[in-house]
């Protein structure tokens, strides 16, 4: 009996040793740092008095269960490419994502992360250094944009950069240089329009036009800049048959204002968007096309507003009467308009999926008192007030306390951080389900512009920064800020007046 039990222990111990050796070997082959969501195993000395056979077997069963979960996630990833072309309309909200959020559809998760990374690119590419004469611009040219950010595999190319005038009262959104000689006194780069290449379009099942809007870089003070005042969307010359459809005035002004004396903001962000989307729809008119708009924070509000505008103007309707579906993937966005705006958006068929962190304060504003959470009677009585707001679309609520990687912090900006949202998406499988990273997305990205990861992962906070703050040595060995080839590339297209004329927006030029 003793000999038999001894052989059993030796067999189990050998199994554990082999399993551990294979794990170490796998780590050596990995191209990225591997973070485990399970508690680390602590080596121990086994004896008849300290460990029972049943407890060891139980541990092996737990490990086997975790392994099966990982294999399930892997299998879901392998099926994505074969399925995406067939189900992209469901992914983009054709059925309002019914049955896809709980449990979380692996393909939808993957696409949300992909579009979230395209929104994150607007932060990574933005020059917000006040000691740079290019502060407020994009650090890369359109042709090198995705490659410079390590995103060439996304399979998109930039067709146009977007600019807005900083004359609007949103000082915490716009960034300006402290130097007297600057690239522009009144303009800020606020996003881009991109289109999928041929290979990616075949994989996606359609030609995808993506609009990515930049949000606020780090701080949350921009919330205080909001006038918290609703005004009719038609008051800024955006077509709407219902004068009771209203949106926050600051968002509307940012979207529609222009500066005729500025070479970059001579045309409003609205005019830049509509003319470029029109040009691309004409260019790919014989293909299946989708229009996907994404943004984080204030960029989320601009995404929803521009999606409404594209459909309300009928721009997405092609010559053969096909309508290109318009969808918004929003991250940590504020409320944009009143309940009439929500109803109008639903009527037009604009699909909006809002990804939020339940601990983030931004999605709770504006409209802290009168909003969709109030009783119908209260909302009915308050609907005429200029500060009665309502969220639009479908909400996917995440909770950062469910991630074993993130620490408790009093820094409100951590809960608002976009990289943290993408991390939470990667580990979310449904309500009450265990947090398991589906794609193995590197958690170190969370600390790129925050201090949110637990310290024992040894990832420094705010680690992403330019080498030598962008300073380089010239041929004489002196340190200087290099010139950027941005001015010629950022001009508006030659045919923009023709496009504006066809859209009925040419007055004033």
TrEMBL record:
Keyword Lipid metabolism: yes
Chief location category: plastid
InterPro entries: AB_hydrolase_fold (IPR029058), Fungal_lipase-type (IPR002921)
Residue span, Fungal lipase-type domain: 211-368
One matching Pfam family: Lipase_3
Keywords from the named record: Chloroplast, Hydrolase, Lipid degradation, Lipid metabolism, Plastid, Transit peptide
Subcellular location(s) of the protein: Plastid, Chloroplast
Entry-linked PANTHER family: PHOSPHOLIPASE A1-IBETA2, CHLOROPLASTIC (PTHR31403), PHOSPHOLIPASE A1-IGAMMA2, CHLOROPLASTIC (PTHR31403:SF51)
Assigned protein family: Belongs to the AB hydrolase superfamily. Lipase family.
Protein name: Fungal lipase-type domain-containing protein
Organism: Hibiscus sabdariffa (roselle)
């Amino acid at each position: 009996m003793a000999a038999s039990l001894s052989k059993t222990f030796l067999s189990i111990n050998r199994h554990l040793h082999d399993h551990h050796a294979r794990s170490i070997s796998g780590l050596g082959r990995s191209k990225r740092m591997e973070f485990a969501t399970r508690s680390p195993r602590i080596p121990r000395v086994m004896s008849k008095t300290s460990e029972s056979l049943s407890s060891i077997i139980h541990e092996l069963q737990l490990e086997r269960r975790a392994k099966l979960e990982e294999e399930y996630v892997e299998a879901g990833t392998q099926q994505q490419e074969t399925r995406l072309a067939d189900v992209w309309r469901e992914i983009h909200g054709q059925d309002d994502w019914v049955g896809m959020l709980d449990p979380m559809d692996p393909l939808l998760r993957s696409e949300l992360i992909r579009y979230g990374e395209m929104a994150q690119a607007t932060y990574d590419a933005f020059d917000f250094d006040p000691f740079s004469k290019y502060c407020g611009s994009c650090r890369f040219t359109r042709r090198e944009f995705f490659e410079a950010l390590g995103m060439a595999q996304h399979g998109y190319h930039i067709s146009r950069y977007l600019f807005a005038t900083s004359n609007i009262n949103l000082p915490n959104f716009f960034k300006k240089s402290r130097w007297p000689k600057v690239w522009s006194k009144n303009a800020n780069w606020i996003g881009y329009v991109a289109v999928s290449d041929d290979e990616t379009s075949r994989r996606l099942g359609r030609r995808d036009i993506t609009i990515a809007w930049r949000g606020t870089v780090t701080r949350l003070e921009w919330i205080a800049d909001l006038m918290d005042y609703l005004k009719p969307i038609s008051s800024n010359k955006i077509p709407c048959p219902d004068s009771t459809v209203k949106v926050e005035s600051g968002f509307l002004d940012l979207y529609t204002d222009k500066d005729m004396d500025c070479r970059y903001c001579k045309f409003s962000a609205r005019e830049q968007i509509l003319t470029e989307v029109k040009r691309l729809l004409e260019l790919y008119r014989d293909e299946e096309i989708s229009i996907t708009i994404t943004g984080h924070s204030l960029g989320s509000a601009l995404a929803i507003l521009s999606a409404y505008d594209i459909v309300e103007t009928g721009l997405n309707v092609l010559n053969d009467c096909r309508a290109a579906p318009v969808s918004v993937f929003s991250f940590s966005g504020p409320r944009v308009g009143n309940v009439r705006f929500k109803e109008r958006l639903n009527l037009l068929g604009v699909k909006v999926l809002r990804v939020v962190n339940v601990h983030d304060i931004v999605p709770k504003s504006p409209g802290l008192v009168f909003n969709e959470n109030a009783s119908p009677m209260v909302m009915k009585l308050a609907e005429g007030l200029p500060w009665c707001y309502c969220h639009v679309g479908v909400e996917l609520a995440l909770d950062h306390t469910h991630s074993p990687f993130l620490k408790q912090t009093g820094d409100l900006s951590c809960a608002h951080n976009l990289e943290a949202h993408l991390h939470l998406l990667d580990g979310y499988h449904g309500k009450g389900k265990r947090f398991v990273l589906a794609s193995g997305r590197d958690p170190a990205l969370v600390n790129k512009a925050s201090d949110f990861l637990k310290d024992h992962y040894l990832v420094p906070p705010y680690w992403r920064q330019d080498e030598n703050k962008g300073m380089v040595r010239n041929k004489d060995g002196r340190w200087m800020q290099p010139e950027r080839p941005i001015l010629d590339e950022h001009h508006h297209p030659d045919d923009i007046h023709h496009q504006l004329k066809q859209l009925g927006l040419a007055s004033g030029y």
